[in-house]
């Protein structure tokens, strides 16, 4: 089956360049050398330590007030 538009078909495998044959672009693209600084890591850990396991929402107290049985 041919391509619907002229010039849209890939060349034969023996004529393809390395990128067309899925040649990897680098040795390990996930290791790019950028890491957060030590201060940024510590700040992130400090924020996690102060989090509640299930924080209350902004309307939780209003809902409790509306549904309470006290008059």
* Backbone shape: elongated
Question: Based on DSSP secondary structure assignment, what is the total number of beta strands?
Answer: 0
Major pleated sheet: none
Task: Identify low-pLDDT runs.
Answer: none
Number of helices: 2
Q: Would you tell me the structural class of the helices and strands?
A: mainly alpha
Rounded to the nearest angstrom, the distance between the terminal CA atoms is 79 Å
Mean pLDDT: 75
Helix content: 25-40%
H/E order of the elements?
HH
Q: What fraction of the residues are assigned to beta strands by DSSP?
A: under 5%
Rg over alpha carbons: 29 Å
Polypeptide structure, described:
The protein is mostly helical. The chain has two helices and no strands. The chain has helices spanning 38-49, 60-67. The radius of gyration is 29 Å and the shape is elongated. Residues 62-71 have a biased composition (Basic and acidic residues). Residues 1-71 are annotated as: Disordered. Residues 12-56 have a biased composition (Polar residues).
Can you give me a brief rundown of this structure?
The protein has helices at residues 38-49, 60-67.
Secondary structure: elements and pairs:
Blueprint: H1 38-49, H2 60-67
Keywords:
2 helices, 71 residues, single chain, mainly alpha, elongated
